[in-house]
Amino acid sequence: MSESFPRLSARTRRFTLGVPRSFTISPDGGRVIFLRTKSGTDPVTCLWELDTETHVERLVVDPRALSADEEDLPPEERARRERSREAAGGVVAYATDSSMTRACFALSGGLHVVDLPSGQTQRLDTPGAVIDPRISPDGRHVAYVTGGALRVHDLVTGQDRALAVPESETVTYGLAEFIAAEEMDRMRGHWWAPSSDALLVERADEAPVRTWHIADPANPDRPATAQRYPAAGTPNAVTELYVLGLDGSRVAVPYDEEYLTTAAWDSHALSIVTLTRDQKTMRLSTVDPATGASTLVREDTDPAWVDIVTGVPAHLDDGSLVWVANSDGGHRLFVGDRAVTPPTLQVRAVLDVDHDSVLFSASGDPTEVHLWTWDGHSLLPVSTRSGVFSGRMSGGVGVLTEQSLDAEGVSTTVVRRDGMAVPIPSFAERPGLDLRVSLGRSGRRELATAVVLPSWHEQGSGRLPVLMDPYGGPHAQRVLNRRGAFLESQWFAEQGFAVIVADGRGTPGRGVDFERAVLNDLASPALEDQIDALQGVAEQYPDDLDLTRVAIRGWSFGGFLAALAVLRRPDVFHAAVAGAPVTDWRLYDTCYTERYLGHPDEQPDVYENSSLFADAAKLERPLLLIHGLADDNVVAAHTLRLSSALLAAGRQHSVLPLSGVTHMTPQEVVAENLLLLQVDFLKRSLGVQRVEQP
What we know:
Blueprint: H1 5-11, E1 21-25, E2 31-37, E3 44-51, E4 57-61, H2 75-84, E5 89-90, E6 95-96, E7 102-107, E8 110-115, E9 120-124, E10 131-135, E11 141-146, E12 149-154, E13 160-164, E14 171-173, H3 178-183, E15 190-192, E16 198-205, E17 211-214, E18 225-228, E19 238-245, E20 250-253, E21 259-265, E22 270-275, E23 281-287, E24 294-301, E25 314-315, E26 321-327, E27 330-335, E28 338-339, E29 346-354, E30 357-363, E31 370-374, E32 379-381, E33 388-394, E34 397-403, E35 411-415, E36 421-424, E37 437-442, E38 447-452, E39 464-468, H4 487-494, E40 498-503, H5 512-515, H6 524-540, E41 545-555, H7 557-568, E42 575-579, H8 590-597, H9 604-610, E43 623-628, H10 637-648, E44 654-658, H11 668-686
Parallel strand pairs: 3-5, 39-40, 39-41, 41-42, 42-43, 43-44
Antiparallel strand pairs: 1-2, 2-3, 3-4, 6-7, 7-8, 8-9, 10-11, 11-12, 12-13, 14-16, 15-16, 16-19, 17-18, 19-20, 21-22, 22-23, 23-24, 25-26, 26-27, 27-28, 29-30, 30-31, 31-32, 33-34, 34-35, 35-36, 37-38, 38-40
């Protein structure tokens, strides 16, 4: 008997194992190194190399050959992986020198350096477990963090010394603080100078941040884990920057803003990007590394918030600044002071700058993400088929990844300078589902919507119970032209549901005004748009949807939206599964929450309207709350406090606590049974007796 979809999905980490990722192209375009597990069920990630001339692929680092397939990770590395949503093990991150001759990586807390041409790997002695090692551009030194100290290992002499040591237990050097990693997509806290003789280093002090305690009630003999969590309206970590020279020099780089969003150090400039606490002003400055003095290059402001875009700042060979900013209602690519993309093309990220060319991703249709280049004169499309694309570019060679509804999995291709395409195979497992997904627009706002029907359902043959399956929150999407986005939705459909996935206001890809419609209200627009999409789809499928049996499920913001739906609109929604829901936005972090709702002391009514406790007495529909008790992102207090409010109001509900489980639910048995339990709950709640499958 073949393995069930829930078990296979759990074992394959939602079919991500075996997929090539994290590409680096050598400056001459002759080699590509990347990460991939050996199979679609193998969780141990290896480092590989492809010769673009011979098309020969080579295994460079196998953690099992280094006797490190069973990992013993330091707490800081576990936290970093949770922030980056890393589900695999092994070599999950690496860094190379500028010539791509050497690479360094952390493995089971140890520091390793590999000579890429020979594949010879060496483990270096360190005084403690290693976090985020990065090799210098000249390949001679490796900087890394251990015990909160930033250290440098000289690969020629073998000398290992500290450049900065924490002054207290709340201080770290060289690591991104919680907010940067969780909400700004900045996973690093130190940057090498191009000359390899100094580093820009973040010092973070969490002393002002309030301490929360994450307990494990299933194991009362274990002490609770203390965690510094910057909840909305409370102090953040204090961050500072220093230029630390290998000669022992230390130069402060002062800035006044609350957040350091990113930094970059190339041959043209040492640049830092900072953001005010209210996130309405972003400043890009260049820094003199000798004095620490900053010069303002540009200042972007917005009455709502300024978006953080990955990949910038960057520079062309002539020093022209590459930047992304809002202009005329769109997210636009700027080269120098000139916008080079139209406002109708929503730029999502800058992926690479190769001499005078910029590779970036952008959307015209929000369900598609395409690759484009700016070559100094004109915009050129790189991807031409429908789908979701990403890529890298260096030395005139490109790496393209492609996903679509027409093909399973992720397709990866290296495009050489002569135009020849060289595939990098994926070892991912096949889900074994017959997808029946229709993308379109629905409702008064023409929301991007996917309708997922059972593969066995004959349209017009009967009305199916409906399952809304959104995320629904800002800066994230569910409705994209790729099969991987709908695997779980299709599986739910096979159980006898018509599944609807809709992206409402706040989601990206449709322009600035659409995204900013959630300012000061994370509840009303999100809920209204799910109802709008439901009604729109019902008009398109009048004989296939049973609107007397409508359920909704979601995780994180989607969990908040699911609970919100049955509390505020029981006339529309008849059951809900709310996984790891944010129930009170005062309990969520500063950067995300204040971006949309402002400061809770200044706008308490806004927080009340977007939270769930005041609605507890309204519950009249079945509600299943699920939460990992080890979740350090959306802490379990969200679910427990809502449950207490529901109990106080005498409202029946169910709570499924997950002992030892974080926000990611990576455990195989947990991930599998969560799907099965949700289906069982939804069927019972909606009175679905059996799958109406022939």
